[in-house]
Design goal:
The complex is a heterodimer. The radius of gyration of chain A is 27 Å and the shape is globular. By secondary structure, chain A is an alpha+beta fold. The longest helix of chain A has 30 residues. Chain A has 4 domains: 156 residues, 2-Layer Sandwich (Aldehyde Oxidoreductase, domain 4), CATH 3.30.365; 206 residues, Aldehyde Oxidoreductase, domain 3, CATH 3.90.1170; 153 residues, Aldehyde oxidase/xanthine dehydrogenase, molybdopterin binding domain (Aldehyde Oxidoreductase, domain 4); 230 residues, Aldehyde oxidase/xanthine dehydrogenase, molybdopterin binding domain (Aldehyde Oxidoreductase, domain 4, 2-Layer Sandwich), CATH 3.30.365.10. Chain A starts with 16 loop residues before the first helix and ends in an 18-residue tail after the last helix. In chain B, strand 3 and strand 4 form a beta hairpin. Chain B is globular and about 55 Å long. The chains are: A alpha+beta, B alpha+beta. Chains A and B meet through helix 1 and helix 18 of A and helix 3, helix 4, helix 5 and helix 6 of B.
């Protein structure tokens, strides 16, 4: 590979940003259509209830109401919200639970969808909801996953005995963990609960749907994977709609973070559009988003580590009880990924993982950036520190000793780890952070009201789910006669900047100029099949498909340039011709050449010979997870009088392979770090343990970081091009959110000597634990059915 | 409900709308005038995505009754520009720094920052953070937004100095 790069590695402006800074980007809520109705959905006020008669007479009579639907009006086939499940092989899909309908005849959480309305305007739709009369027959409910798994618990789904949604022993367990733990020089056990972090995509869920005169359905929604969503709707939900009759458009997406890997209101919008015979837009409020159907799945996690006296890990035993909420969605795959990542961060010969997922009468959880890894790292990275303290080893050193190296057997898919520079992330990060100066050794008691501490965390993540899912991408490029090109890809742009990075890959690989390429995405009629964005895949998997298409374009340009050189009295073989930055020239005589536009023009406006537009499709399928890695360091200050934790400095070093656009990579790491800061310290999803009502139902009661809350954030890009990625690139989207909670937890321990066992690590918990330690009576933190119950 | 005709001065132009007393400014801006750059994120004044300027001051359009904005000067993202039709230096700095990701908070952020720079041409990072604290951004972690605002402030100062020198 030539090291001369024109676009790769450059901080070029992303193609979608001009529309975003001028307010012209069109999101689902901005779509205007003639005759568009406004749709709203009625949620259950009960956490668990049989639904009797639903009287819609008064709602229908309200002027402006066009359609009112209930469970009787929607397909009875059950489905799971996860669109990604459609990319699973059959044996894996068999573990998914098809457990819900669009509108339900039995409410299973407060907010579960009971009826829906389409009306001429949103005010009428809201009024109509209030006029629907539903007879509820309340049933006993259960809100805690461990309570749900007890034999006497009320059943959330009649066909899930014991409320077990899924139970699994990890298929890649190895060695004899029990024996290795018994023989270990030192062992550690640690328990911790992750929280139901909310995505808080600023654009709440919405969808537009309509049927054309010929019965063709168009859906516009902020889906991260429209091709899979379309397949899912046809195969699982509306079986009477042929997949060929569905056109799915994913416009500008106001934040995804994994939430849009599950269907939201799209099926309800389709059902309403069908009932109304007109286009319908269904929208949701922020309050409904909180009481609704997507958040991180809370994992109750117990990890046991065994090690030799020099700190070498010999065994890991890891067990999770997860709470799916009322329906299954992504809970199975996030919990499985938690086990993969937690068992796969360090090289441990004896490993054992298992999980049980419970149903409860709480809102449905889903996939969230970090996808199980952020949950597991919170306990694993504290456990390794506890081990290091027992053996009096520096936390950075014990990680360097145990992290997986290139060639180690991975336990994501059981293939060798192809490439890792996590060691360099740790070393360079520690040096820049000043770890050796700031970390004063174990057990150094700090004094005073404000106490500072430092912590480290080092994790692995995937660049795509190769080995588990159909991890495949297609991309195509076509050249117009004017030399401009269109790049067609379907990763969807939810803010990550992937369209910019892919355009740079397309320009670099094809020889086109970056400015000549227009990128088109997210339209199932136009853009080629792809899974969409998930698992930090798009840079590597879609990127490889784009690079493949780009190489084919360059090949065609070279071939077609031969006669154009001949016209100029120059004999050139295709192999002697280079294409770069929109110019075609001879490798050994760069001054001899012409504008690529001449080739593009001659390809189409060719009156003498066969005319054929220059175009190519590229594809890529991943059979490995192509791991990327990140180490992070945090310095905190704990106010022992208030329990408040302030993060002073945060540094993340990422193993990126090669940064196609360093600005975009930094953006992912910085954004992940601050979302992770909220996960660590303030974002508390609270469910009333008596009623199942979500108490944290606004941005006042659920605190996400504001600009005033952010520390100094520094990023280091560790670049060592990876042969499996486009121009050496690996993924970055998710890793940044995984480290903050454990790095901050370890820093809190360094500051005040208290181990945090639940998220968020809020001031009330810290005060309580400090009081407990000093045998004073503290006020216990408020209880929640999800987090906060465990201190 | 009593319908009435109200006159709004929006992005420098006078426009009439038939409104009802319960209409919010965001409804008028988005649904009647079709200026969809103003975004609804929470409906309760907590996220700042609907921020517009009224007489130069940032307000939440989701909390403001439309009738209360009648006759006053409203600026939305569509009205932000550099004198004529070019990009405002804040917009250009956001592009250069990659300070927008999903873009949903961006119009509100830009208008809050426009008000900041109008009041304080030489803000510190702390000033920017404080002025930004009513706008939630879930994507960027604010880092590049703060960099972009400080850069835009510097560009504006440079331009003003040159303007004064000329």
């Amino acid at each position: 590979m030539s090291e001369r790069l024109s676009y790769v590695g450059k901080r070029l402006a992303r193609p979608d940003i001009a529309a975003k800074v001028t307010g012209r980007a069109v999101y689902t809520a901005d779509v205007a259509l003639p005759g568009l109705l406004q749709g709203r959905i009625l949620g259950s006020p009960h956490p668990h209830a049989k639904i009797g008669n639903i009287d819609t007479t008064r709602a229908r009579a309200l002027p402006g109401v066009v359609a009112v639907i209930t469970h009787a009006d929607v397909p009875s086939d059950k489905f799971t919200r996860s669109t990604l499940a459609e990319a699973m092989p059959d044996f894996a899909f068999a573990g998914e639970r098809l457990d819900q309908t669009i509108l339900t005849s039995r409410a299973r959480y407060v907010g579960d969808w009971v009826a829906a309305v389409a009306a001429e305007d949103i005010y009428v739709a809201e009024k109509a909801l209030a006029l629907i009369e539903v007879e509820y027959e309340p049933l006993p409910a259960v809100f805690d996953p461990r309570a749900a798994l007890r034999p006497d618990a009320p059943l959330v789904h009649d066909d899930a005995p014991g409320n077990v949604a899924q139970r699994m022993e990890f298929p890649f367990n190895a060695g004899d963990t029990a024996q290795a733990l018994a023989e270990a020089d030192v062992t550690v056990e640690f328990f911790g609960v992750s929280s139901r972090q909310k995505h808080i995509h600023l654009e709440t869920d919405a969808a537009v749907a309509w049927f054309d005169a010929d019965g063709r359905l168009t859906v516009i929604s902020p889906s991260q994977g429209p091709h899979l969503a379309k397949r899912q709707v046809a195969r699982r939900i509306f079986r009477d709609i042929d997949e060929s009759k569905i056109h799915w458009i994913s416009p500008a997406i106001g934040g995804g973070f994994g939430a849009r890997l599950a269907l939201g209101v799209e099926p309800a919008a389709i059902a309403l559009a069908r009932a109304a015979g007109r286009p319908v837009r269904v929208t949701t409020t922020r309050e409904e988003d909180f009481s609704g159907y997507s958040s991180r799945t809370d994992h109750h996690q117990t990890v046991r580590l065994g090690a030799k006296s020099d700190g070498t890990l010999t065994a890991i035993d890891y067990r999770i009880v997860a709470d799916s909420g009322a329906y299954f969605s992504h809970s199975g795959s996030t919990t499985a990924v938690n086990i993969q990542m937690t068992l796969g961060t360090f090289q441990v010969p004896n490993r054992y993982g298992q999980f049980t997922i419970a149903y409860t009468n709480t809102p449905t959880t889903s996939g969230f950036r970090g996808y199980g890894n952020a949950e597991g790292a919170f306990v694993l990275q504290q456990a390794i520190d506890i081990l290091a303290e027992k053996l009096d080893i520096d936390p950075v050193e014990i990680r360097l000793k145990n992290i997986q190296k290139s060639g180690d057997p991975s336990c994501l898919p059981p293939v060798p780890v192809e490439h890792t520079r996590l060691d360099e992330c740790l070393r360079r990060g520690a040096e820049r952070f000043g770890w050796t100066e700031k970390w004063c050794g174990w057990g150094r008691c700090k004094t005073g009201r404000h106490r500072r501490g430092v912590g480290v965390s080092a994790i692995t993540h995937s660049s795509g789910a190769g080995g588990f899912l159909l991890e495949t991408s297609n991309a195509s490029i076509k050249l117009g006669a004017d030399g401009s090109a269109s790049l067609f890809v379907s990763p969807c742009e939810m803010g990550q900047g992937i369209l910019g990075a892919l355009t740079q890959v397309a320009a670099e690989s094809s020889g086109l100029s970056r400015e000549a390429i227009h990128v088109v995405t997210g339209d199932t009629d136009i853009t080629p099949f792809d899974l969409g964005s998930h698992a930090s895949r798009s840079m590597l998997v879609v990127g490889n498909a784009v690079a493949d298409a780009g190489a084919k374009i360059k090949h065609q340009i070279r071939e077609r340039a031969v006669p154009l050189f001949a016209l100029r009295q120059i004999k050139a073989e295709p192999s002697e011709i280079e294409v770069r930055e929109g110019r075609v020239f001879l490798f050994d005589r760069q001054d001899v050449g012409f504008d690529l536009r001449d080739v593009a023009e001659a390809a189409i406006f060719n009156f003498a010979d066969r005319s054929e537009q220059i175009a190519a499709t590229g594809a890529y399928s991943a059979h490995s997870h192509h791991p990327n890695h990140q180490a992070a360091f945090a310095e905190v200050e704990v106010d022992t009088h208030t329990g408040a934790v302030k993060v002073i400095e945060y540094l993340a070093a990422h193993d990126i392979g090669r940064a196609i656009n360093p600005q975009l990579v930094e953006g992912q790491i910085e954004g992940g770090a601050i979302q992770g800061l909220g996960f660590a310290l303030t974002e508390d999803f609270v469910i009333d343990p008596d009623t199942g009502v979500v108490l944290s139902n606004s941005l006042q009661t659920y605190r996400v970081p504001t600009a005033n809350d952010i520390p100094e954030v520094e990023t280091i890009l560790v670049e060592d091009p990876y042969a499996g990625g486009p121009f050496g690139a690996k993924g970055v989207g998710e890793a940044g959110i995984v480290n903050p909670a454990p790095a901050i937890a370890n820093a809190i321990y360094d500051a005040i000597g208290v181990r945090m066992t639940s998220l968020p690590m809020s001031a009330d918990k810290i005060l309580y634990l400090l009081a407990e330690r000093e045998k004073k009576s503290g006020v216990a933190p408020g209880a929640s059915a999800v987090s906060g119950q465990s201190i | 409900m009593t319908k009435q005709i109200a006159t709004f001065t929006i992005n420098g132009r006078s426009r009439d709308a038939i409104i009802e007393p319960h209409f919010l400014l965001i409804d008028v801006v988005r649904d009647i005038f079709g200026l969809t750059g103003t975004k609804l994120g929470c409906g309760s004044g907590e996220c700042g995505a609907c921020t517009v300027l009224i007489d130069g001051e940032p307000v939440n359009a989701c909390l403001t009754l439309a009738i209360a904005a009648g006759g006053r000067s409203i600026t939305t993202i569509e009205g932000l520009h550099d004198g004529q039709a070019g990009l405002h230096p804040l917009q250009q700095a956001f592009i250069d720094h990659g300070a927008a990701q999903c873009g949903y908070c961006t119009p509100g952020v830009l208008l809050s920052m426009t008000a900041l720079l109008a009041a304080n041409g030489n803000p510190s990072a702390a000033d920017v953070k404080s002025a930004l604290s009513g706008n939630i951004c879930r994507c960027t972690g604010y880092v590049k937004i703060i960099d972009a605002v400080l850069d835009a402030a510097a560009r504006l100062r440079l331009r003003n100095e040159r303007g004064a020198a000329a």
